[in-house]
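Ticket reopened. Same input as before:
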Amino acid sequence: MALTSTASRRARAAGPSGWLAAPALVFFVVFAIIPLLGVLALSFTRWDGLSEITLDGVASWARVLTDELTLNALVVTAKIMIFSFIVQAPISLLLGVFTAGGQKYRAALAVLYFVPLLLSSAAVAIAYKALLDPNFGVGPGFGVPALAQDWLGNSDLVLFVVVFVIAWQFVPFHTLIYQGGVRQIPASFYEAAQIDGAGRVKQFLHITLPQLKYTIITSSTLMVVGSLAYFDLVFVLTAGGPGYSTRLLPLHMYLTGFKANDMGAASALGVILVVIGLVLALLLQRLGGRNASASQLEGA
Amino acid sequence: MVSTTQAPATPVAPPRRRAPAVPQAKGPGRARPNLLGGLGGWIWLAIIVLPIYYVVITSLKDQAGFFTTNPMAPPAEPTLANYQLVLENNFALYFANSLIVTVGSVVPTLLVSFMAAYAIVRGRGRFLSFTNKLFLLGLAIPLHATIIPIYWMITRAHLYDTLLALILPSIAFAIPISVLILSNFLRDVPNELFESMRLDGCSDWTMMWRLALPLVRPAVVTVGIYNALHVWNGFLFPLILTQSPSTRVLPLSLWTFQGEFTANIPAVLASVVLATLPLLVIYVVARRQLLSGLTAGFSK
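Engineering reply: fixed in the latest deploy. New output:
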């Protein structure tokens, strides 16, 4: 015993050279860390994307912070984040539990549930653009006038349509996460509960939900932080419209930089995006951490 | 007590296999069918399948049929003309570009990430722990907020509108999650195996390739699938870093195709089907690997 532990210490002490990590580090620093600092630097410049970059003080920031569109983009982002979470979280959780059941038909349904995972956001957006068409889409196909709306042209409806399409694309991913989580719950827990006469709802509330605590945290974190990345789907589906009603922060950044050719302001928006992402990730991590220590206390 | 349980144990074993007295409780809801859950499952199936059905049947209609028949009815005379049109419009080129970019970024990502993960898990020292922390930070940052500096770097390096422009940042953005997952798996390799190889006089370099790599090969495959799907379906980098048809990748081609053939919805949807087909084939052949690749590192 003592021999192996000294041997292992020696083995670890020798260890591989740190140089092995160098290629990955170089790639990451050059194409992620430097751009991350670059976006901050560029926010203090004036640049149209083609000509020379000139220092411009805080002019870009002044433009961004006084622009109503910035606030609009933040509000739209927050709305889509909150609504997507409210829609996706319960559906994914229930479907995860459903597909984790042993029944044959559930396994067969699950095979189809996961097909949206294969489609690119561009493909999903293009498909929905066609099938939401008020004249030739799914709505008129059913012959129900209420379904034959101009879903993407109505600024009151479009936000909810976007939330629905996002859910269609991303619920399968979270279902998959929950399915994995449910499958790790020992079957003996349910057997014991059945002997105690606990019904299905009680089993769900008292076994499944508490056991899925970490899965819920992981999935929720990915949902919330991921909603800052719904760029391509919304870009192809609505391009931020009609008007500015679905102009999310990342989309607003892209359009400001590459369409309005104001890279300075777009960089300032990029900095805001990074800060929001970091704050959300840290916040959710703290939430998860507190839960982790709480569950350890419960276990003791 | 002892006699009653011990006595029948061996002789009863074979008949028990044929007719189990108590149905094995696996997971929730085995006792009686969960009607409400089943109903929800079928409703969700309809939500998932309906858009896919619409896309497929519409892609088989000719334009006249698209404008005259009920949108939800299958075509009276299915035609593959739309697929022919898409294939004649450089589909093979875009497919090849996607393939080059995907393979060209996933293979180097796996290589450098595996080496870095090995160094981080087996080695020690400030440099490696700093590297690890930097990668963890990369997980929390919405990296696409950095597209403007990346655009600047790529244009300054005269790589704009090349496939390499897509490959380089894709590698960098895939490194944090790859290193995280691979190092989680490498930590599970027993230290004794490394010790015995070291006693045989093997260097760290040899152990990395001869011992560590074969043992974590499933994880490498998983990480590879995860990254490949993201790069294959990626839209943002192609949108800002390429321009001409010769460097176009599939997701971007869907978008431009939609712009060129606005009126020809069946052809646009045929392009959506064609772009998804390769992944669908992989899904049918290797569903388990694909799905486990998708939730790599999230479902623990």
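The longest helix of chain A spans residues 263-299. Residues 1-12, 290-300 of chain A have pLDDT under 50 and may be disordered. Please confirm and we'll close it.
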